[in-house]
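Design a sequence for this backbone.
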């Protein structure tokens, strides 16, 4: 499914929203987010317009949420949105003022525009910066306006989000967030749309799409243009095939880690070298959702590289779920990124009241 982008004018308006100058942006909006093109270390601004900057501090904590599936009517008889919001509020409050919330896809499923509006108002109300990328379900019910969610996010006060509707880069999120301290980018977060389903007639052994080549080129260009070799963390929805190898090695006692799997691996239909691009971009952690019954964090090693490969913990009881695998994860970034490890990721399981 091609994710259409239709309106450059809207994209330019939304660009200004990130600066906090658009309708809906409060003058009290935290000033810790800014466009990255003006930040130090940016040698080439051709990708700089996709960058944001947040202030890094020691012990920076990311609340990682995934696969909420708000709007999913599968269990129509007992679908209780108030219950879902109460559950989500409990987790955000338990997380105790994280520095950033990241949602790695399937936040919505079969949602209405009213449900999108309500969710964005809700998540924005905590005055915590939040980043968002898409899963394979998020845009399936808003085909008539596939850019609706992006527009609403960028009009909100606390979203750490930027995209351009007519930019010709596949997918709906291809941006990055520099975590900066003393004019140095300590980490760079890459927020990537891993897309939906493979196109008809395209070969492969899975039904899921992959991160497209032009997105990978964009990712590499960001890294090259920034010129700082800042270590990266990549957030997306559909896992990489390397997750299979990592789990096998973990099961065999080769790699250190935590967690387990109950689902098959729902990786994309072909291996187009995503891992190698991430590796070349200095990414030290890759974070996926999608497979609701898989929950692990593993220090994966290939011949030359170390990268933590991690599944999020499904947030809700919407769509299929394991009753003992609902909750959230906190990623606490070490000041020395080369030491980043599975043990920096802690999960908390939260049952429904
Ligand atoms: Fe999901």
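Sequence:
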């Amino acid at each position: 499914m091609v994710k259409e982008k239709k309106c450059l004018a809207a994209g330019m308006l939304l660009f200004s929203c990130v600066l906090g100058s658009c309708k809906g942006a409060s003058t009290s909006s935290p000033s810790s987010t800014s466009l990255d093109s003006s930040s130090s270390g940016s040698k080439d601004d051709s990708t700089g317009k996709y960058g944001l900057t947040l202030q890094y501090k020691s012990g920076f904590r990311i609340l990682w949420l995934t696969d909420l599936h708000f709007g999913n009517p599968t269990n129509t008889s007992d679908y209780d949105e108030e219950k879902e919001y109460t559950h989500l509020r409990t987790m955000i409050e338990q997380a105790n003022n994280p520095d950033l919330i990241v949602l790695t896809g399937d936040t919505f499923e079969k949602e209405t525009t009213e449900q999108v509006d309500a969710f964005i108002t809700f998540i924005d109300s905590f005055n915590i910066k939040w980043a968002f990328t898409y899963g394979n379900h998020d845009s399936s019910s808003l085909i008539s306006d596939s850019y609706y969610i992006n527009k609403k996010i960028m009009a909100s006060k606390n979203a750490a989000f930027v995209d351009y509707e007519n930019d010709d880069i596949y997918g709906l999120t291809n941006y990055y967030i520099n975590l900066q301290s003393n004019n140095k980018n300590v980490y760079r977060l890459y927020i990537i749309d891993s897309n939906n389903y493979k196109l008809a007639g395209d070969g492969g052994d899975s039904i899921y799409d992959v991160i497209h080549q032009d997105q990978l080129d964009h990712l590499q260009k960001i890294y090259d243009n920034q010129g700082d070799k800042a270590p990266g963390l990549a957030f997306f929805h559909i896992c990489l095939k390397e997750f299979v190898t990592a789990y096998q090695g973990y099961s065999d006692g080769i790699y250190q880690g935590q967690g387990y799997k109950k689902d098959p691996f729902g990786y994309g239909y072909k291996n187009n070298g995503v891992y190698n691009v991430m590796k070349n971009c200095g990414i030290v952690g890759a974070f996926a959702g999608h497979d609701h019954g898989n929950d692990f964090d593993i220090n994966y090693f290939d011949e030359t590289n170390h990268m933590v490969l991690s599944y999020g913990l499904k947030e809700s009881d919407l769509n299929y779920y394991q009753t003992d695998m609902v909750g959230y994860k906190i990623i606490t970034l070490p000041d020395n990124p080369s030491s980043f490890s599975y043990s920096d990721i802690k999960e908390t399981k939260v049952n429904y009241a």
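Helices lie at 8-18, 81-94, 113-124, 148-154, 213-226, 242-251, 274-280.
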